[in-house]
Specification:
Distance between the termini of chain A: 29 Å
Largest sheet of chain A: 6 strands, mixed
Largest sheet of chain C: none
Number of strands of chain A: 10
Order of helices and strands of chain C: HHHHHHHHH
Order of helices and strands of chain A: EEEHEEEHHHHEHEHEE
Number of helices of chain C: 9
Oligomer: heterotrimer
Shape of chain A: globular
Helix content of chain C: over 70%
Radius of gyration of chain C: 18 Å
Strand content of chain A: 25-35%
Structural class of chain A: alpha/beta
Chains: A alpha/beta, B mainly alpha, C mainly alpha
Chain lengths: ~220, ~260, ~220
């Protein structure tokens, strides 16, 4: 089967600094991959590269069959990136945000309700402006905005950060459900316990390269 | 740690001088510089000593020799700068980006000079430093537009971001040159006063020669300044650049010793 | 591209309707300017009527800087630019959408300012067709310049003082042409007013074309 993500000696620059200094990574469909590593290791850059936001300076990079060296833009509507920022307009309501972002990506704005339902966002919150929500609720809203686009690849940067235990379980559940239908997930996290439970594979990144890559199944629980 | 890297320089452009320090001069620029200097001296002689005061404009025609040349050189440089900007944005060329910056900067200097000289001329002729003459006003507006370009250029940003941002501003400024000139001309024609600094086609002989000489001298001077400015900009950029491979090596060393 | 523009314009206008910055801050500013100049020029209606056209356009430019700053600030919030890059929207369409939303806000400013001058400066309205055309075309030009420069300085540290420096010189022809066009419409100027309207149209066209062309690289690389 063709890998969803295929990186071979990939180098990516942030300005003139090589944030990724030669990454080798291959991810099959349906996998849930946990990216670990110290701060500044390049995890965020790796996720953004797979989203098509960061140009490839050297090496190979293919995501969902698209060569990122020649065409970074077409991949963007097919992947979902959840970064540290919310990606939502503070003064619009959650529902308005989700519908807007759906329209922007060619998705059906009427699916917004279903997406908000899936992230367990209480109905009373859906018409509140985003800046009135707590950070956990905002995370759910960002997730909904991502889900409505039905991406085949999820790129989550610290998805558990700042969430209460209910919300964390929700994120894990969503990742597992997605994996069952063939959606691939790459997530970066410092939360050792949570990540270990849901990930199938652990990739350690440091200094812009992959230093370790092992299947979690080996560690029988 | 990475070793210090000597900045790469365009072929034959940078050479250590006697004391070993890098300088931006070369045989080419020395020739240009010498020509400019000689040219300026000759120009001064011609404009002040040899040519006679104009029948209409009097002694102040001497100022015109400078004023017209600076503004002409400025226009040529602004056009060149816009061309470089388009190339830099299209081909992502660092050379073109720096060339756009250097030409624009020298053009701004010349525009400023034009305005100042124009003000002096106004003072001499009518006793006022400013007159709402079409050319002076257009030049002042253009000057401000390019000051804006330099301001955007000086914002801290990555190379690509700076190149695109300043390229956009440059293109807009250049696109507005004809608009500014036309609109101000229409406006001035409504007022029908001081037809200042119209290039009187009936100047001839020595005066005409002096004017042409002045254009050439200022053109050479402008080119000389642009070349030096470009090289300085190139060196500045190179200084902040570490060889990519060396940087990759250093980055990978961070990974050593990290155990899961 | 047009469809994308409408999506963006709709979002921007909804944001503005929600936050009401234009209404609650920019309109009072505009009224304050009209009043202050009334004081400054000693309330002499002769003088005020003479300067009305020029003052109108100068005030529109200053108000535009405020409106553009506000619009650009919204886009800086919380990762929204990245989210915009992750969409399938045509960059030219995003640009046009912003132009439309800025235009709508500027037209509100235009009408308010015009009314204020009619009332406070006792300006007699005439040549309404020319007035409207100039106001419309001029506002399009200003909106296009703002849609371009707003995001350009968005990431920058000293953006608040940089934006006026960038926008105002480049819009000087709009000020010139608009003021002269208005003067002629109001019966004070000499020459052909439609010439000036034509000039405004040209400036608007240049800005729109350039904006559509360069918005792609601007969004990607800054």
């Amino acid at each position: 089967m063709d890998p969803v993500v295929h990186l071979n000696s990939t180098v990516a620059l942030a300005g003139r600094f090589p944030a990724l200094a030669g990454v080798d990574l291959s991810v099959q469909p349906g996998e849930i991959v946990w990216l670990r590593g110290p701060n500044g290791a390049g995890k965020t850059t790796l996720l953004r590269l797979c989203a098509g936001l960061v140009p490839v300076a050297k090496g190979e990079a293919r995501v969902l069959g698209v060569d990122l060296r020649t065409d970074r833009r077409s991949i963007r509507t097919r992947v979902g990136l959840l970064g540290h920022a919310s990606g939502l307009y503070d003064e619009l309501s959650v529902a308005e945000n989700v519908r807007f972002w759906a329209r922007c990506c060619g998705a059906d704005p009427h699916e917004a309700e279903a997406a908000m339902e899936r992230v367990d966002l209480a109905p009373r919150l859906r018409d509140l402006p985003v800046d009135r929500l707590s950070s956990g609720q905002r995370r759910r809203a960002s997730l909904a905005a991502m889900l409505v686009r039905r991406p085949r690849l999820w790129l989550l940067d610290e998805p558990h950060a700042g969430l209460d235990s209910d919300a964390r379980e929700l994120v894990d559940r969503l990742m597992v459900e997605a994996s069952e239908v063939g959606v691939t997930t790459l997530f970066a996290s410092h939360e050792l316990d949570r990540a270990a439970e849901v990930a199938l594979r652990q990739v350690v990144i440091a200094g812009g390269v992959v230093v370790e890559d092992r299947s979690m199944r080996e560690e029988a629980r | 740690m990475t070793q210090p890297v000597t900045p790469a320089a365009p072929e034959g452009s940078v050479a250590p001088d006697r004391s070993g320090a890098l300088s931006t001069s070369s045989r080419g620029t020395r020739v240009l510089g010498a020509l400019s200097l000689v040219g300026l001296v000759v120009l001064v002689l011609f404009s002040f000593a040899f040519s006679k005061p104009d029948a209409e404009l009097g002694e102040s025609i001497r100022i015109m020799y400078v004023h017209v040349s600076t503004v002409t050189a400025a226009y040529c440089l602004m056009l060149a700068s816009a061309g470089f900007s388009i190339f830099a944005m299209w081909k992502r060329s660092q050379f073109a980006d720096l060339a756009a910056h250097s030409t624009a900067e020298v053009a701004t200097l010349l525009l400023g000079l034009t305005v100042v000289v124009g003000a002096i001329w106004g003072r001499m002729t009518w006793g006022v430093f400013w007159t709402w003459d079409a050319r002076l006003t257009s030049t002042a507006i253009l000057f401000l537009m390019y000051v804006g370009y330099l301001a955007v250029r000086s914002l801290p940003a990555g190379f690509r971001a700076r190149s695109v941002r300043s390229g956009v501003v440059n293109l807009l400024a250049a696109a507005m040159i004809p608009v500014v000139r036309e609109s101000v001309n229409w406006w001035a024609s409504l007022h029908q006063n001081e037809t200042a600094l119209t290039l009187d086609p009936s100047i001839s002989g020595l005066q005409y020669f002096t004017l042409m000489l002045s254009m050439v001298v200022f053109a050479v001077l402008a080119v000389w300044m642009v070349v030096h400015r470009f090289r300085v900009a190139w060196l500045e950029d190179q200084l902040s650049e570490v060889g990519l491979d060396a940087a990759i090596e250093a980055r990978r060393k961070e990974a050593v010793g990290v155990v899961s | 591209m047009i469809r994308d523009a409408l999506v963006i314009a709709g979002k921007d206008l909804r944001l503005e309707a929600r936050s009401k910055v234009a209404v609650s801050q920019v309109l009072p500013f505009v009224l304050a300017v009209v009043l202050l100049f009334g004081f400054a020029l000693d309330g002499e209606s002769q003088v005020l009527q003479r300067v009305a056209s020029g003052l109108f356009w100068a005030t529109v430019l200053f108000a535009a800087v405020l409106v553009v700053q506000r619009s650009a600030a919204v886009e800086r919030a919380d990762g929204v630019t990245d989210a915009l890059r992750m969409t399938a929207l045509h960059p030219g369409g995003i640009f046009l959408g912003k132009v439309v939303s800025l235009l709508a806000q500027l037209l509100v400013v235009d009408v308010t300012l015009g009314l204020a001058m009619v009332v406070l400066y006792d300006v007699a309205l005439s040549g309404v067709l020319l007035l409207t055309t100039c106001a419309l075309l001029g506002s399009v030009a200003v909106a296009a310049a703002g849609a371009l420069y707003g995001p350009l300085v968005a990431g920058a540290r000293h953006r608040d003082t940089l934006l006026p420096l960038l926008m105002l010189p480049v819009l000087a022809p709009v000020l010139l042409a608009g003021a002269r066009g208005f003067e002629i419409a109001l019966g004070r100027g000499v020459g052909g007013g439609w010439q000036w309207a034509g000039m405004l149209g040209i400036v608007a066209g240049v800005y729109l074309a350039l904006g559509i062309a360069v918005w792609g690289p601007l969004l990607e690389d800054t």
